[in-house]
Amino acid sequence: MSENWGFDTAAIHAGTAPDPATGARQVPIYQTTAYVFKDAAHAARLFGLQELGYIYSRLTNPTVSALQARVAALEGGAGAICCASGHAAQILALFPLMGPGRNVVASTRLYGGTITQFSQTIKRFGWGAKFVDLDDLDALRAAVDEDTRAIFCESISNPGGYVTDIPAVAKVADELGLPLIVDNTLATPWLCRPIEMGATLVVHSLTKYMTGNGTVTGGAVIDSGRFDWSASGKFPSLSEPEPAYHGLVFHEAFGNLAYTFHSIAIGLRDLGMTMNPQAAHYTLLGIETLGLRMERHVANAQKVAEWLEKDPRIASVTYAGLSSSPWNATAQRVYPKGAGALFTFSIKGGYDAAVTLVDELKLFSHVANLGDSRSLVIHSASTTHSQLTDEQKTAAGAGPDVVRLSIGIEDAADLIADLDQALAIATA
Ligand SMILES: *Cc1c(COP(=O)(O)O)cnc(C)c1O
Question: What pTM was computed for the model?
Answer without folding.
Answer: 0.96
